[in-house]
Amino acid sequence: MKIYLFRHGETDWNRQRRLQGQSDVPLNTFGIELAVKTAEALEQEGIFFDRAFSSPLSRALETARILVGGQDIPLETDSRLMEMNFGAYEGGAFDPPKTDPTHPLHNFLCRPECYVPSVGAEAFEAVIERARAFLEEKIVPLEGSCETVLVTAHGAFNRCLMRAIVPVPLEDFWKVGLPNCAASILSLKGGKFDILEESRIYYEGPVNVRP
């Protein structure tokens, strides 16, 4: 079984380089266009889904609806697929923390292995754990009855989910870029997950590759 793990299309906050987290920011016009182009490319390649799951946040859910298109399949939301929570820092700009070592988000962006979340925010370990729980509860039981499954979520979350499969060091968290509407293609065989491909895009010129 293959799992196509997509990041959502572009939002205005992506374009403005603002931290979204669990704030519910919708796709912008270009984000819808990216999702439509991706859906068209998937159809041309003969990739269709048996089941679909999405974060309930509108940017991911709208992306999932576009990718599913006219396919008559269940599309289920799951709160465990929501983006990492950044507490009071959601909506803030990415760039100042990258240049200010005293900023609470500096380590998240530059030294993730040293990141300590502020009050109300999530640690990497907590996100990895809810990603693992989602895989075990929702995806593993589909092996044998489905060939291809869609999961649509978010940049930091998708990286955490892949680390639930292959536990690479946190210092490499940002090593692989993950543009809007990029897919990481996973496999499930005999109850074991593997990562077949990371960060595949179905349109020209990747956008918003990393914070």
Polypeptide structure, described:
The protein has helices at residues 12-15, 29-44, 58-68, 95-99, 106-110, 124-139, 155-165; strands at residues 2-7, 51-54, 75-77, 148-153, 183-189, 192-200. The chain has 211 residues and is of the alpha/beta class. A six-stranded mixed beta sheet has the order 3-2-4-1-5-6, sandwiched between helices. Helix content is 32%, strand content 17%. The protein is globular, with a radius of gyration of 16 Å. It has seven helices and six strands, in the order E-H-H-E-H-E-H-H-H-E-H-E-E.
Q: Which regions contain 5 or more consecutive residues with pLDDT less than 50? A: none
Write the H/E string, N to C.
EHHEHEHHHEHEE
The average pLDDT value, as a whole number, equals 97
Radius of gyration: 16 Å
Estimated helix fraction: 25-40%
Q: Based on helices, strands and strand pairing, what is the structural class?
A: alpha/beta
Find the count of extended strands (DSSP E, 2+ residues).
6
Percent of residues in beta strands: 15-25%
Q: Main β-sheet: number of strands, strand sense, barrel status?
A: 6 strands, mixed
Q: Which term fits the overall shape?
A: globular
Strands side by side in the biggest sheet: 3-2-4-1-5-6
N-to-C CA distance = 31 Å
Set out the fold topology.
Elements: E1 2-7, H1 12-15, H2 29-44, E2 51-54, H3 58-68, E3 75-77, H4 95-99, H5 106-110, H6 124-139, E4 148-153, H7 155-165, E5 183-189, E6 192-200
Parallel strand pairs: 1-4, 2-3, 2-4
Antiparallel strand pairs: 1-5, 5-6
In short:
32% of the residues lie in helices and 17% in strands. The longest helix is centred in the N-terminal third of the chain and has 16 residues.
